[in-house]
């Protein structure tokens, strides 16, 4: 088991954003998180990556407690992520944006780089080479020297995924990776996620496209008002009455669920 969550809770004053959530993610899975806006999914990601510290509960990554660790330390242990809103250095090249993802994994210090020490130059070349390999993996070979801000929205998403992958994480968290994409781009991202999993990286993703998630993920958890209300294989999730009521929608007057109608 790669990740085990035991009863984590996050409060902001009197607001309970995530309440007593427990789940397990196995090595090699693609695990989906779905639920209405404000259900606590991104807050959950923020606890996994050290941005927020849980008020209660445990987060075990490879049997090691990580709740309360700084984000850079959690990244060093092998958890990487993307964000719902793209966060690129838009005036820098695609290659430079990906190289930033190796920060914290390199060994030579700032002064070594400034003074041009041979070890720093060798390490920088290694980072460049790894970044080029990842850009090829995500389908962006040939874009290395383009400004990140000049790329299409879909390709900017790919750059962000590449930046998260370059440090070779064991667990990749994707926060709405297909937001704003058309159907073709969405399918391409699905193919990329399968390729990432085939290369040995476990994936947890937040997504609103229920049909796409059920076709891609091995298991899915459903959040509603900060609570986990379901955790199962896709076929069981889409037929769960609690899920239909809380997320997919209650039956309409003709007896057809919102999910079925769409």
From TrEMBL:
Domain ABC transporter: 3-250
A Pfam family annotated for this UniProt entry: ABC_tran
Keywords, in A-Z order: ATP-binding, Nucleotide-binding, Transport
Keyword ATP-binding: yes
Domain of life: Bacteria
Molecular functions per Gene Ontology: ATP binding
Protein name per UniProt: ABC transporter ATP-binding protein
Source species of the chain: Bacillus xiapuensis
Lineage: Bacteria, Bacillati, Bacillota, Bacilli, Bacillales
